[in-house]
Amino acid sequence: MVALGNFLFRFRTTLSPFLPLLLLLPGPAVLADPLVAALIGLAVALLGQVVRRTTIGLEYIVRGGRNHRVYAATLVTQGLFRHTRNPMYVGKFLMVLGAGIASNHWLALLAFTGAYSLMYQAVTLAEEDYLRTKFGSAFDDYCRRVPRWWPRLAGLRETFALTRFNWTRVLIKEYSAPLGWTLPIVLIGIWNIHQTTGLAARPVAVPVLWALLGFATLVWLTLGAMKKTRALALPSES
Fold it and tell me: What pLDDT is stored for residue 13 in this prediction?
C-alpha cells in the first residue's frame, strides 16, 4: 500500500479529474427526490469545507509535497491536527461523500467514495511511512495520541483558544474550493431533475440550484481577482 500511495501521491492531480465520471454510473436511486439528494450533498460538502478551512485557519500544513513526492519540513501536531492526523483528507472526503449523495445513485455513490477512500488510505500510509522515517519516535508518539481518521472532539475549545485563526490564509488557499464542489453537485442535481420530472416541473428548485452555483462562482471570481491584484495577501507575500 505504501508503494501504491507514493504512486497516487505523485499522479493524483492527473487522476482526480477522471474520478467524477464515476458519478454518472446508473443504478437504484438513493432518494426519491433528486433535489433533496442535491441539497443533502451540498450540506455534507459544506461541512467538509468547514473542516478544511478550520484546519488551514488554525495551523497550515504545506500540501502537494515536493517535486510530486511526499515531503514535510516539520511535524505539524497543532490545530485540528491535535484531533485527527489527517483533517484535510477528512474534509475532502466529506466533499466527495456530498457529491456521491448528490449523484442519487447507489452504484455511483459507492464507486466514487470507494475510489477516493482507497486513494486517501494509500496516500496516508505513504505519508506516514515518510514521517516515521524522518521524525522517528516523535511521530510514533503522535500516532499513539491522535487517531488517523475519526476526529477526537475532546479539547476542541482549548484548540481554538490556543491558536489565532488566520482568515486571510484561508481565503488565499481555499478561494476556489467552494466552486470545485458546488459545480458538480449542482450540475448533477439539475441533470437528475431533468431525467426524472423535467426542469419545467420544478420552477423553484432549479433556479435555487443555479443561484447557489452563481454565488459560488461570484465568490471564486472576487477572491481570485483580489489575490491576483495583491489586495488579498499574507504578510509574507506582501
Answer: 78
